[in-house]
Design a protein that fits this description.
Structural class of chain C: mainly alpha
Oligomer: heterotrimer
Strand order of the largest sheet of chain C: 1-2
Distance between the termini of chain C: 41 Å
Largest interface: A-C, 42 and 39 residues
Number of helices of chain C: 11
Radius of gyration of chain C: 19 Å
Structural class of chain A: mainly alpha
Radius of gyration of chain A: 20 Å
Distance between the termini of chain A: 30 Å
Strand order of the largest sheet of chain A: 1-4
Order of helices and strands of chain C: HHHHEEHHHHHHH
Strand content of chain C: under 5%
Helix content of chain C: over 70%
Largest sheet of chain A: 2 strands, antiparallel
Strand content of chain A: under 5%
Shape of chain C: globular
Order of helices and strands of chain A: HHHHHEEEHHHHEHHHH
Helix content of chain A: over 70%
Chains: A mainly alpha, B alpha/beta, C mainly alpha
Shape of chain A: globular
């Protein structure tokens, strides 16, 4: 899926190109510093449970964005990774007595494995067919979760203990849990950052922009796309596994196709293909849901309206528009 | 300087004493949270009607007792999702000073709310949910299961139907935990009463089309087709059964979980002859009629379901307990409510057991034919009354850790 | 054996809904390259308009059959003119996202207003009762649904694949500027085609009203299945979606008989398999 208004690489002036890259790297670094500084002190001002929810979804959206923004593949089934990891993590913590970090690891591993299997099937197609296949696979995972005894069906897995981190630090109170979630989010965020700026990331972008050309240059594009898919799946799983521990609950909502739609919305609202976009989008959407929670079905209506408005008039999303405005100011 | 010190000390002591007295009822306000399904399949069973019922109870309590504390009612929609429900409960308890949550139709959400309530030592009185696990394996000292449960429904309908001659059964079961529980309890009740289960089929939740399952039920030739499902699934099964001439062909439908609002939605033409168990019917006696007419005036002329009635009386009894105790400490208030039997204005003689189960009579109803009905909501005729001590699962059978 | 026959017949009935709905989707995608996620919500709108006509205006089923498709077609054309038109030069997936958003809005609004339990809609008098076929009792209404769907599907296929109008439509999607140069008003044709597809969805809604719950969620449970049908049939192929629609109804019916718990999943398993082996679908050409 091609993003709009890309800067064309300037061929004959290497110094200019690297100046752009330097600027981008500096922007990312400064932005990240501000973001994490705010997040470190946020619990003093904002209800920590809300922040934790937003961070889990931010990680989920970043993982999704890795696939679409940099891999060019729109997955309409990402909920299967979020949800499946959540179930495994909840089950591990509750029934197998895992400590939280091991439970989260178990969940993430499950999502990665699922990513390998589904990726293998889905990667062969592109565009709308890819989206449809991910949807079909996610539906199968949904019905599996509906029926399998260990998931508790409509009730979900409840009463998941938060446990003691590394066997020592109790995560029952909000603050230790919050900082653990923040650490996990930071890990995921920087991992994605590293992936994007690595040689692997460059090839991925080249494939996204012009796959036949990349193939003609000798790259095994299928492998790169599969790798991106699996990474995205694993990180989405990390988000889901963490969320299950925070809320002490794993339910069907997380594997339902509506959840897949929500993550698309978050990333779209925040800004597809930007580094901070998914984070902004996640916070906006979680805030909106919390604010409108008492009003029931209005949440769905508002989400739909935001989708429509974004697609028609606001395609770059919050961060995308912000970045474009900053760029214009710099030039003008 | 010393006098000033003494003055400050005296003031501080007074403030402390006043604070301590008030700390018994936090903020001198009792806040009631009505958590329900406001927009989906249980919205007519509980939903906005439950908020109306809660407010009626508060009004009536204030008029009768003039309490010294303030009472507030808030409502929210749990969208039938355990995660949404538990998050709202958490936020209510942590940030908004809610002391008790009532209603909560949907057992999955109720179990999650029960968990959170226990953690925070608040109170949860569920009129809406069905799962008998709430007073069984998952019982809690902070939870009371107020109106009905799956064991009671299965036992009531199952046993009574077999006794009236419906001794062969075929189940259409919603394929999830609640449906399985309902089917399991009903099977036990039917076999214990001397009947036989000829077969059954498990149907994915939210199936639109039951024709092939109804066909299988017809082929089994069972006298009774038991519907172990709820909400939209039940309504669909009943409508389509009428279409396929099931009742005309001699088989009867037994709805294991059917509410007055469901019958209203299906219409008497299609629902006639359906056998069901409920704990409350607006037309049962003078008291229920008077209250129900008041309720209907406030809720778009819709007659109350047993869940609405439950929300009303549970709020009344809760407020009485808080008043008697002088505290809104969740665990203590729930314990207070279990102390002695009481005369529930709408459910009759009741008492709350150690496992949190509120026990009262149950009624076996049959849906009238259109000819027998004199007007809207005149839908039920009483077939039998199941006395309180037989209606619910015996205390020792639940597996609740609170029962010694 | 008789029980099986009954299930097959029921499968055909369900299949006719799938076929009718996927027909609308296939027309819209095949001719316009728009992925119409709103289709489920438009189907639901059709059922609600029928309910409204009956309960507020006293206009019964046969009126609804005539009025609803037109009303929905107009609604569809408005959507196309006001919103979809701006997305044609972009990636297909934006169209998907827009229609997804619209679906959420429409369903949310109706859920807010009508709750979820659904509204009753009585069976039209002429179509009550049924035929005792020996192996099962076939309600007249269901027989009507099969017959009517089949007729509509085949007529639509014929118009698009075998008439001049249809050939203009098909040419316009492949090369709009050329066809426009020949004096054909391509934008108007596109608008009308989208309207037609939506009208088909609305018509399916009217068919559904007497037998399924007229509820705001009726579309969302169906839309994913219908997408699977279209993908399996071949996203641009009209005949593909008709055949697959009926076929899948039968397959689902058989699964309900042998292994009911899997009846919701079987369609997706088939979809995944088809996408792996023959990604353009059973009848598709790309």
């Amino acid at each position: 899926m091609a993003t709009e208004a890309k800067r064309a690489p300037v061929e004959g002036a290497p110094s200019l190109a690297s100046r752009d890259e330097l600027r981008e790297a500096r922007y990312h670094r400064n932005g990240s510093l501000v973001l994490f500084a705010v997040l470190l002190v946020a619990p003093a001002l904002v209800y920590p449970v809300f922040l934790m929810k937003a961070l889990c979804f931010a990680l989920f959206a970043c993982a999704f964005n890795l696939l679409i923004g940099y891999g060019g593949l729109l997955s309409f089934g990402h909920a299967m990774f979020l949800g499946m990891a959540g179930y495994l993590s909840a089950h591990a913590a509750k029934d197998w007595g895992f400590t939280p970090e091991l439970a989260i690891l178990a969940g993430t591993a499950t999502a990665t494995a699922l990513g390998i299997v589904t990726g293998f099937i889905a990667i062969r197609r592109q565009g709308i067919y890819f989206a449809m296949i991910t949807l079909a696979l996610a539906q199968m995972v949904f019905f599996f979760c509906l029926q399998a005894p260990f998931t508790g069906g409509e009730d979900g897995i409840q009463g998941v203990p938060r446990g003691k981190l590394f066997g020592v630090l109790s995560l029952e109170p909000s603050l230790p849990m919050y900082y653990t979630v923040l650490a996990i989010f930071a890990f995921g965020f920087f991992l994605i950052h590293r992936i994007i700026h690595s040689p692997f990331g460059q090839v991925l972008k080249a494939i996204r922009d012009n796959e036949p050309r990349a193939i003609s240059l000798g790259y095994r594009t299928e492998r790169y796309k599969l790798a991106a898919f699996v990474m995205s799946a694993g990180l989405a799983g990390l988000a889901g596994a963490t969320k299950a521990i925070v809320f002490q609950l794993a339910s069907l909502t997380d594997v339902h196709w509506g959840m897949s739609g929500e993550v698309v919305l978050m990333t779209l609202v925040g800004g597809l293909g930007t580094v901070f976009g998914p984070v902004a989008g996640a916070f906006v959407l979680v805030a909106m849901e919390s604010y409108l929670a008492e009003l029931g079905a209005w949440v769905t209506v508002t989400q739909g309206a935001i989708f429509v408005v974004c697609v028609l008039a606001f395609r770059r999303g919050v961060i995308g528009e912000l970045e474009a405005w900053l760029a214009r100011r710099r030039k003008g | 300087m010393r006098t000033k010190h003494k003055l400050w000390a005296a003031l501080a002591a007074l403030g402390f004493a006043a604070g301590a007295a008030q700390a018994q009822i936090s903020g001198n306000t009792v806040k009631i949270g009505v958590l329900s399904d406001m927009s989906s399949l249980y919205a007519d069973i509980g939903g906005p009607g439950s908020v109306v019922a809660a407010k009626m109870a508060v009004e009536d309590f204030e008029k009768a007792h003039h309490p010294k504390f303030k009472i507030e009612v808030v409502g929210a929609d749990h969208l039938n999702k355990p995660d949404v429900g538990s998050q709202i409960a958490r936020k209510w308890y942590d940030e908004e000073g809610v002391d008790v949550i009532v209603d909560v139709p949907n057992s999955g959400v109720a179990l999650a709310v029960s968990q959170v309530t226990r953690e925070k030592n608040k109170a949860f009185i569920g009129s809406g949910p069905g799962s008998s696990d709430l007073t069984g394996a998952k019982c809690s000292p902070n939870t009371i299961h107020w109106v009905y449960d799956t064991w009671m429904l299965a036992n009531g309908t199952g046993t009574a139907v077999v006794k009236t001659g419906g001794d062969t059964w075929f189940f259409i079961t919603a394929d999830y935990a609640f449906g399985h529980a309902l089917e399991r309890d009903a099977t036990n009740a039917v076999t214990k009463a001397g009947g036989k289960v000829l077969g059954g089929v498990k149907v994915p939740l939210n199936t639109q089309d039951f024709s092939s399952f109804l066909l299988q039920a017809q082929a089994s030739k069972a006298k009774i087709i038991g519907l172990a499902n709820a909400g939209g699934d039940t309504i669909n099964s009943i409508k389509q059964a009428a279409e396929f001439g099931i009742v005309k062909g001699g088989q009867h439908l037994a709805g294991l979980l059917v509410f007055l609002s469901d019958v209203h939605g299906i219409g008497l033409e299609k629902a006639q002859g359906l056998i069901l168990t409920e704990n409350f019917y607006w037309d049962r006696n003078d008291k229920s009629r008077a209250w129900s007419k008041r309720f209907a005036a406030l809720d778009n002329n819709k007659m109350p379901t047993m869940v609405h009635a439950g929300v009303y009386t549970s709020v009344l009894e809760y407020l009485a307990a808080v008043s008697a105790l002088g505290s809104d400490d969740g665990g203590k208030v729930i314990a207070e409510m279990k102390k002695k039997p009481f005369d529930d204005p709408l459910f009759g003689k009741s008492y709350v057991r150690e496992d949190g189960r509120n026990v009262h009579d149950a009624y076996l109803f049959q849906v009238k034919t259109p000819a027998e009905s004199k007007g809207p909501y005149d839908y039920y005729k009483l077939l039998a009354t199941i006395p309180a001590d037989q209606a619910f699962r015996p205390l020792k059978d639940g597996g609740c850790a609170l029962v010694k | 054996m008789p029980a099986l026959m009954g299930q097959l017949l029921i499968g055909l009935i369900n299949g006719s809904f799938y076929a009718l709905l996927s027909l609308g989707l296939a027309v819209i995608f095949g001719l316009l390259n728009i992925i119409n996620f709103t289709h489920g919500a438009q189907y639901m709108l059709g059922a609600f308009v029928a309910w409204f006509l009956l309960n507020q205006l006293g206009l019964g089923y046969w009126w609804a059959l005539a009025i609803v498709p037109v009303a929905l077609a107009v609604f569809g054309m408005l959507i196309e003119r006001l919103m979809l038109k701006h997305l044609y030069k972009l990636d297909h997936l934006y169209g998907l996202l827009l229609t997804f958003g619209l679906a959420l809005m429409i369903e949310g609004l109706f859920t807010q207003r009508f709750g979820s339990a659904g509204m009753p809609y009585s069976m039209p008098g002429k179509l009550t009762g049924g035929y005792a076929l020996g192996f099962m009792f076939l309600p007249t209404y269901r027989a009507w649904v099969i017959a009517a769907s089949l007729a509509i599907c085949l007529t639509t296929w014929f118009v698009i694949e075998r008439t001049k109008l249809g050939s203009y439509l098909r040419a316009a999607t492949e090369n709009p500027s050329l066809v426009q140069a020949f004096g054909v008003n391509v934008p108007r044709m596109i608008t009308l085609t989208y309207g037609f597809g939506v009208g088909l969805a609305g018509l399916a809604g009217v068919f559904a009203a007497p037998i399924y719950q007229v509820s705001p969620q009726m579309g969302s449970s169906l839309i994913i299945v219908v997408f699977a049908v279209v993908v399996i049939g071949g996203m641009g192929s009209i005949m593909g979606s008709i055949v697959t629609g009926f076929g899948l109804g039968v397959v689902e019916g058989l699964t309900k008989y042998f292994y009911p718990e899997a009846s919701s999943t079987v369609i997706f398993v088939i979809m995944a398999i088809v996408l792996m082996i023959r990604p353009q679908g059973l009848f598709g050409q790309r």
